[in-house]
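re: ur question from yesterday

yeah so i grabbed the chain u mentioned. its 190 aa long if i counted rite. heres the sequnce exactly as i have it in my notes:
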Amino acid sequence: MLDLTEFDAWWARWYPAAEPIAWSLREAYPDRWLRLHSLPESKRYPETSAEVSEVLFRYDALATRVLGRGAPCLMLGYDWGVNDLKAAGNEIAQLGEARDTRLTVLPADEYRESPLAVFGTEVVWHPGEFDTLLLAIADDRATSLWVAIESGAVFAPYDGGVDLIHPTTLERDFHRLHFASWRSTRDDGL
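ran it thru and got these structure tokens back, copy pasting raw so excuse formatting
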């Protein structure tokens, strides 16, 4: 069990050069980052039931591969414009996926016009268990990421794809080859 009162220390063990948000991880750890798309031809949003099925298949396959089936994870969510954690909302709970523990507030700075509250809960990754939340992410109605507690691997889905942060460059390179057909045709995803 992860002691969430020690979130900042736990996060610093895995990612001392980044905040607990996907774009910060991409910038700080480009040698371990891989971007893959959730639909063929880099299509952003699913429009048919077949495309919804494809998005869920890819999200579940990638998360299971990177996090591990049955792996304990910390699932993070976010709320903008709060000055303290008591004011933070909880979009994860609103979607019925989990209860929250408020973890930290990232202050406004040159990149953020307002503070960003980070909240989360410990979960176990199982394919299909988070489909409601994953579909909300695919439709740009929610933001969340999962971090494997033991390895620090990150699964960060977004509308149009997934950013993965691997524990090592070797693992990133393996998944880059294994999922080559899911990589963007517009950028190299490195």
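noticed a couple things. Residues 49-67 form the longest helix (19 residues). also DSSP finds six helices and seven strands in the chain.
anyway ttyl
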